[in-house]
Design brief:
The chain has about 325 residues and is α/β, with parallel strands linked by helices. The chain has nine helices and 14 strands. It is globular and about 75 Å long.
Length: about 325
C-alpha cells in the first residue's frame, strides 16, 4: 500500500527526464515479489489518478481506513515530512503489516523517530527508509573501495546542499555515515537566514575516524544541488550532479614541479541512481522473507535525524558544538 501520491509516490514515473524507477508505485509494479493493492492521499483526486495510473483496486483520502480494510503486507509512506510519525505508526499498528518503507526524514523529532524504531522492533516489522544512495550500485562500490583503502586515511569530507537540514541535509549525513563513518560532533549556523522549522544550515562536523567535514547551504530558490567531496591520504572521490557521477583522482608526482605530489584525475564512473527506489523495494521484500536488516534501517534514519537535530540545536546556540543524540 502507498500513502502519498506525489512525485516520489507516483509522479516521477511520468516525468520524461527521470531515468529508471524512482516512484514507489512504479517500483511496486515492477518488483516480482509485490503487488500494489491500495493508494491513499490527502487529495482524493490525486489518489484516484494514482490508482488508475497503476490499476490499483482501492484508493481514498483516509489511509487509516484503507489500512484496516486492505491489511497490506508492506506500506510505503511518501506523505509530507510532518505527517511521517502519525502515518508510520498507523502502519506499524495494522495487523498483518510486515514491512514499512518510509521516505526521509523518519520523523521531525528524535523522540518520534525513536518511537517508530521501538514500535517496529516490538512488532517485528522490517523498517526501511529511502535514503536512496545506499541503494545505488556506484555508491555501494565506492564504500567498498574506501573500506579497502583506495583513498587511504580520510582527511576531510565537504559538501553542498539545498532544501533543509532535515529534509535534504539528513540525506547528506546518512551518506557520510555510509561512506566515511559515524559523526561525533557538529556545529551549525543559519548563514542564509532562512525562516521556518527546517532551515538550510551551514555545518562543521567531526567524524569518529578523525576526519573533519563541512557542509555548506545554498539557496534552493536558485537551483538544487547535492555534492560530496571525500579527500584521503591517497586520493579523492567527488560525488557530483547529485551523485549521478563519481569522479576519482589519485596521488601522483606533479607534472609541473619536481619534488611535489598532486592529485591526478582517473576519470569518472556512474553513481547508478536510476533504479534506487526499485532496489529499496526489492531489498525490503527480501528482508521480510529472510528476517535480515534493510540496507537503510530505521536505526540508520534515526541517527541521521539526530545529526540534523543537533545541527539545529547548535545553530540556535550560535554554533556551539553539539553531540548527535546527546548534549553540548
Amino acid at each position: 500500500m502507498l500513502i502519498g501520491c506525489g512525485k516520489i509516490g507516483s509522479g516521477f514515473a511520468d516525468d520524461p527526464r527521470v531515468r529508471g524507477v524512482l516512484a514507489h508505485a512504479h517500483a511496486y509494479s515492477l518488483c516480482p515479489a509485490t503487488t500494489l493493492v491500495a493508494v491513499a492521499d490527502a487529495s482524493i483526486d490525486a489518489a484516484e489518478r494514482c490508482a488508475r495510473r497503476w490499476s490499483v483496486p482501492a484508493w481514498g483520502a483516509d489511509p487509516q481506513r484503507l489500512l484496516a480494510e486492505v491489511k497490506p503486507d508492506i506500506v510505503s509512506v511518501c506523505s509530507p515530512d510532518a505527517t511521517h510519525h502519525e502515518l508510520i505508526m498507523a502502519a506499524l499498528q495494522t495487523p498483518g503489516v510486515r514491512g514499512v518503507l518510509a521516505e526521509k526524514p523518519l520523523a521531525m523529532t528524535a523522540a518520534d523517530a525513536a518511537d517508530i524504531v521501538a514500535a517496529a522492533r516490538a512488532k517485528n516489522v522490517r523498517l526501511a527508509v529511502n535514503y536512496s544512495r545506499r541503494y545505488a550500485a556506484g555508491h555501494v562500490r565506492l564504500r567498498e573501495e574506501i573500506r579497502a583503502g583506495r583513498l587511504g586515511r580520510i582527511q576531510r569530507v565537504a559538501g553542498l546542499y539545498t532544501k533543509g537540514a532535515l529534509h535534504n541535509g539528513t540525506h547528506w549525513f546518512d551518506l557520510a555515515r555510509f561512506l566515511v563513518g559515524e559523526v561525533a560532533a557538529v556545529q551549525g549556523w543559519n548563514l542564509l537566514g532562512e525562516p521556518g522549522p527546517d532551515p538550510t544550515l551551514d555545518c562543521l562536523l567531526r567524524f569518529e575516524c578523525g576526519a573533519v567535514g563541512s557542509l555548506q547551504a545554498l539557496d534552493s530558490q536558485l537551483f538544487s544541488l547535492f555534492e560530496m567531496d571525500i579527500v584521503g591520504s591517497l586520493g579523492r572521490a567527488r560525488l557530483v550532479d547529485s551523485g549521478h557521477w563519481i569522479e576519482h583522482t589519485h596521488v601522483a608526482d606533479s607534472p609541473y614541479y619536481s619534488g611535489y605530489a598532486t592529485l591526478m584525475p582517473e576519470g569518472r564512473v556512474p553513481g547508478v541512481l536510476e533504479n534506487c527506489t526499485l532496489r529499496a523495494v526489492e531489498d525490503l521484500a527480501a528482508c521480510i522473507e529472510t528476517d535480515h536488516v534493510p540496507r537503510c534501517s530505521g536505526e540508520d534514519a534515526l541517527r541521521a535525524l539526530q545529526i540534523g537535530l543537533a545541527l539545529h540545536d547548535s545553530a540556535r546556540a550560535d554554533g556551539t558544538m553539539r553531540t548527535p543524540g546527546g548534549g553540548a
